[in-house]
Amino acid sequence: MPTNNSKPQESRKGTTMTFFQITQHRSAIGLPQRTRGALKSLGLRRRMQTVFQPVTPNVAGMILRVKELVRVKERVLAGEGGS
């Protein structure tokens, strides 16, 4: 059976990764616990806070759950240059 010897993208030198830049623009006061939990899972605690999350299906699903509360941009960040 073949094995997958690929390394995670973060550990490769000189690579670029794509992230979601997520900024919370509306408060979660009065919203269901499930919605507040999605914000917490994304790492958002207060209005105007910005976090970076990797582009994955799980993160995209959480963003869709709170799409009325956040603004999202896609950012490409370069990895470490190796010498």
UniProtKB/TrEMBL annotation:
<dbReference type="Pfam" id="PF00327">
    <property type="entry name" value="Ribosomal_L30"/>
</dbReference>
<dbReference type="GO" id="GO:0003735">
    <property type="term" value="F:structural constituent of ribosome"/>
</dbReference>
<comment type="similarity">
    <text>Belongs to the universal ribosomal protein uL30 family.</text>
</comment>
<dbReference type="InterPro" id="IPR005996">
    <property type="entry name" value="Ribosomal_uL30_bac-type"/>
</dbReference>
<keyword id="KW-0687">Ribonucleoprotein</keyword>
<keyword id="KW-0689">Ribosomal protein</keyword>
<dbReference type="InterPro" id="IPR018038">
    <property type="entry name" value="Ribosomal_uL30_CS"/>
</dbReference>
<dbReference type="InterPro" id="IPR016082">
    <property type="entry name" value="Ribosomal_uL30_ferredoxin-like"/>
</dbReference>
<dbReference type="GO" id="GO:0015934">
    <property type="term" value="C:large ribosomal subunit"/>
</dbReference>
<dbReference type="GO" id="GO:0005739">
    <property type="term" value="C:mitochondrion"/>
</dbReference>
<dbReference type="GO" id="GO:0006412">
    <property type="term" value="P:translation"/>
</dbReference>
<dbReference type="InterPro" id="IPR036919">
    <property type="entry name" value="Ribo_uL30_ferredoxin-like_sf"/>
</dbReference>
<feature type="domain" description="Large ribosomal subunit protein uL30-like ferredoxin-like fold">
    <location>
        <begin position="21"/>
        <end position="70"/>
    </location>
</feature>
<protein>
    <recommendedName>
        <fullName>Large ribosomal subunit protein uL30m</fullName>
    </recommendedName>
</protein>
